[in-house]
Structures
1.
Amino acid sequence: MIDIDLLKDTTQIPGAPGYEYRIRGFIKEKVGSFVDELKTDPMGNLIAFRKGNSGKKLMVAAHMDEISFIVSHIDDDGFVKFQPLGGFDAKTLTAQRVIIHGKEDIIGVMGCKPIHIMTAEERAKPPKIQDFYIDTGYKAEQLREIISIGSPITRERSFIEMGDNVNSKSIDNRISVYILIEALKELEGQELPVDVYGVFTVQEEVGLRGATAATMGIDPDFAINLDVTLACDVPGIAGHERITDLGKGTAIKIIDGRTICDYRMVEYMKERAAKGNIKYQLEVLPKGGTDTASMQQFASGGSIAGGISIPCRYLHQVIEMVNKQDVRASIDLLKACILSLGEYNWEHK
Ligand SMILES: [Zn+2]
């Protein structure tokens, strides 16, 4: 049902925003044989193209970058200061290991002032990102031989299976990278009603930047974005704040912080899910943007855009968790949506 080895590798390969070359190389190898054409645009978006039967274009996006950091300073004792690339909750940095990508990859630990020597006032305050530094164990001289200001930094955490779920760093958004690879693989050899541009985008976590450029290049008629969404089905959260539940199916996006999905695309997705017996829930995400927004707004005249979201617990932490059945349902819904796109009446009401 799920190719665990492929999913595992997809989560573990680094891809800081702006430095996605390693994950891009990996994806190229995986999808190259299933598509008609594979190209990387100047900004770094990887575009996997399949020719369809009509002149219409569908863009399917999955961002391949992950929230990361970048080295901003190395002090004379060898401690590293950094800037975040993407939205971090500072408390999740405590006691984490990271990988600094210089001439070689080196491990570091996120350090901060020990609680034992904090004043009562310091202890009462939540930590700030600026409170942390990275300790690599190297002396400054040795360290400067390996890394420099501008070296990207990603998080270190292995991939595990837990019950019917998987847990890892960077499930956001490698789960969608995986889903797009699998969908392209399973659609190999099938006739498509529209040209399909499967785009593995760059720099989503710093503001949907790659998708904006890719959309202007492709100019799609239709757009489907793949990304995770919050599953707050955990203790202490009221029913109306859950957004989605793990294990209750894929999620059809209605809105997020930057997009009101096209009502026709929402209806179409619901119809396809019902016809294909695909379990789904509806996502109303009050905050946070996705590449859906770029694809909707930066096509000429706008595109008919929507999103397939994968419920995920502990978003933007190194212990992100998704359910295998939800992942399978997401692949199935994406495929069903691609294959029937020509059969729906897309006229405005
Ligand atoms: Zn994401």
2.
Amino acid sequence: MAIRIHVGGDVIYPEMVKYTLRTIFFNKQSQCSFVQEQDSAVLTVGVGAENDVRVSPRFLGHLTPVNAQGHVVLEDGTTDFITTIFYYINSLQEYNSRDLDDYGRFKFANSLQCKLNFIDKNFVQQLIENFIGHQPKLSSLAWTKRRSKFFLTHDIDSVYGATKEDGNYAVRHMKFGQVFRLMFNAAFSRPDWLNMDEIMKLESEYDFKSTFYWLLIKDRLNSDYKFSSSKIQRQFKGVADKGWENGLHKSMGGYGFRDEMRMFGSKPAGNRFHYLRFALPEGYDTIEATGIPLDTSLGFSEAMGFRNSYGLPFMPYSLRGKRPYNFVEVPQLIMDRTFFKDRKSVSEIKKTLIDFFEANKYNCVFTINWHNNFFTELKYKGYADIYRALLEYFKDNGIECITQSGIIEEYYKPEMYLLKRDQEVEAKK
Ligand SMILES: [Zn+2]
């Protein structure tokens, strides 16, 4: 039964407060409803001390200050849980950041997660547990938790790069037999990185499925393959025919979503920005305008972990629209390149990842991005082995695989936020 909540008239941003409470209740697999009459409410939320839950009388958007523990606090120094949870889930610290990296991305070094050293913590989940722990009227929610699942994804940036990248590696390491093999395969149109079948075969050994994100634009900034070519189309269709899934890997550099969606053939069920290149809030506005129900770009390329300090897929909130966005964001927690850049050893990477999964057995969807080129054994040697070790770990520990469509089914809940499911939206140029 839904818990009845009254949000007081003195709350400046009632919709934001309701969104946060709905998100908290959803996290706890429960529901709340909002009532006009204070007398019929079980829980009251307001600015004054007479309320069960207090919220700040002021809200400054991305300028909202946090204390040394990373909490938004009330005048008396106690935590304003609602505002703090809202602030993190929606990455408000990233709004209007001027110090972006070369790709136009928010820098990990500028994040609270870096400064307060908690990128590996599901901090919002801890806040939710504390919030409930402080509320005797919500004690029924205290014991609910979800077992973590994992979501396997592959960004397809390059299909023909093996001759060059692996070839250079092979030459440097005097593996001339490999150079010959790479050139032979390229000459006979069987490039090493056109390996979707191999990846699916590996995953099927464990009964897992994944999603492939395709670049539609071939140029210097984007892919080295022509999406419409029969060779790529065969792979693309093969993925869907086998019951795996496809998504759009939105290109960099001035192209609109509309053209790429047309080239994709149908409306993609999901998107990830190439190089995770998007900035907030415009990135969310753009995604919503496409009508694509899922995006999975929210991750730092510099560090693994929780970019918005939250472990589960969620529907973000539009400050400008004063309502939730009509799509689900799936934070990308883990990417092969992060480790490659840091030159971590294979055993070190395996240990880091397994420790991370062990510490987060509940309330997470572990979204993993393993590029197709990281499955070959030259330049990216060892990474296929790590991937297999992760699948092995998930299987041994009974951790469930969730697919792109599974996430949409479980986490895309416009009705919960009183949005229309198929909102008619115009794709932005
Ligand atoms: Zn990419």
3.
Amino acid sequence: MKKVLFTIVFSMLSITNIVAQQKIPDTHLTSNVVAARRTEITLPKVNGYTCYKADFHTHTIFSDGDLTPRQRIREAWHDGLDILCLSDHLEYRRQEQGMLNALAPYNADGKPYTYYPANIDYVNSNRTMGVMCNFDAIYDEAKAFIEGEGLPLMLVKGIELSREPFKLGHFSALFVKDISSLYNRDIKQALRNVHAQGGLVIHNHPAYRRTTSDKSNEQAELYNEGLIDGVEIVNDMTFYPKMIRRAIEEDLIMIGASDIHRPTAETYGFRGHFRTMTFILAKECTEKAIREALEKRRTIAYSGDQLMGEEGLLSDFFNAAIECQVLRKDKSKHSLQLRLHNSSSITFRIAHNGAIYEVEPFKSVNLTYKGATPRFTIENMWHIDYQHPTIAVEIDK
Ligand SMILES: [Zn+2]
Ligand SMILES: [Zn+2]
């Protein structure tokens, strides 16, 4: 018995000794998941074009957004975008008062810079701009960051021009060369400056702080002079149905944009769908090809799992994403057994015979179609005059 006890105590001492001798590392990773992850949004090839995902309307701390340009860039890549524009307000910066208050004691003369608040009336006031901000330098830094990180993301140079009262509104200037020289107190001249640089002008959130999305007299002057190239069909979660007719009749680019100020994880992540964006149907993701696609108006706006645009393009997009196979023909009942397979990341809500069939991403649905040639109304697609398109489905392609 003594011997047994001795053996047990001896073995315990040896174990303690081994543990004490074991090398304790200086650092220990609590998770080995360090790779950056991206949400891949799979979209079909439509009429030979790739659907690129763009958000042309975002804000950073250099106007009234909560994130830095670098954070916006990483976020855009995580969110599955191919194209991003940091379109800060040229005329006002919500964050600057706080920053200037903090920095004021360190100015050479001890005085803070003059600050003009965000609600300034740019039309009637004698004031011009708040603190000057070098947006060209911010763009260069952001572009260098993308290149340094090796992110496959096209950064479009742009800015938002804002005019109050709201009968004028807000406009994004895209593909501009020199932001610092765009500003003019007269909005018409500012937009002419955008065109002189080869840029495009998008009319943002057309009903913002107004009771209508119809043109005010002041806005009509801008349109009549040909200063507007595109219009936001949807901004964040607000869809402007009347803008589709305007875009078709006046040959304008249809845009969907997030106008994101907070982190997208906070705004869209918890709702369970992708951020608001524009799908651009282009040959390749180069500035030339994207500009060509925009000028030919090959865009579809996306928001809240809904798609908005021109009927023909929506129909082509649907038929490219959905493969329709006839499983069985029932001649006596004049019906077809169909299998619809969705090879995209977009859900389609198909109405037929009083029912809604949800065809989720990368899933199939079998249904009975009453009739000989399938046509479906797509409930989460919108075209002219607040209507859902009714699409003739290509079979066994
Ligand atoms: Zn705006
Ligand atoms: Zn904005």
4.
Amino acid sequence: MRKTDLLTLHYPPSQIMARREEVRRELLRQSPHLSGGRITRIFQSDLKLLFELYDRFFFRNYFRDHFTGQLRFSLSTRMTKSAGMTLYPRNLDKLSPQEERYELRISAVLLFNYERLERDKVVNGINTRDSLEALQLVFEHELCHLIELHCFKESSCRQERFQSLAFNLFGHTESCHRLPLMSEIATAKYGLSIGDQVSFQAEGKTFLGFICRINRRATVMVPDARGIYRDRAGKRYSKYYVPLSLLKKS
Ligand SMILES: [Zn+2]
């Protein structure tokens, strides 16, 4: 198995499903942290294991046997929109194979929020049954970035080359996820949207303001004569990060 062979791997749909199931079964068997399809905790070591399983079941152990660079895995609690990301040095094209280094980063937030809305959760064009399957699909997308970067030193999931690779390897028909985002959860669970007037309690006082962003918490702008934020009309505000459950619509 040579590097360029990675680009010619092609599995029919039934094989893809069977291999994806093998990866899932082995991951659940070997990980001390994961016990079912619902992810409530996860560690870097689980991502490393997931990688080794994909290498074994999809890439014929190319990475174990031939890849000489460095691979790291991380989980982010700050990625609230992107589900995954592959990081690499800017001068990748000038590095020797031994100097290549990549980091696959997965959003823990999106995995933990998976169950919070009851609706279809399509990832890369495939409807997922639980957060573990969503993790696999997000991870597969990043694996395609990794392969493209490794082979061509550049990668874009908007380009045809990437899309063919993702389709041939994993049957992906899209390059995006429709996992619940905090803003959607806020609307569904708390009736809160960006722009809403809200109140909340802090330091024994009641504050009134409006929501300007929703991530893990809502960003609330509160009129404040000494605030450091100023709108076009010259009105000043202070910014507060407030858990959604503590906000009252006013
Ligand atoms: Zn991408």
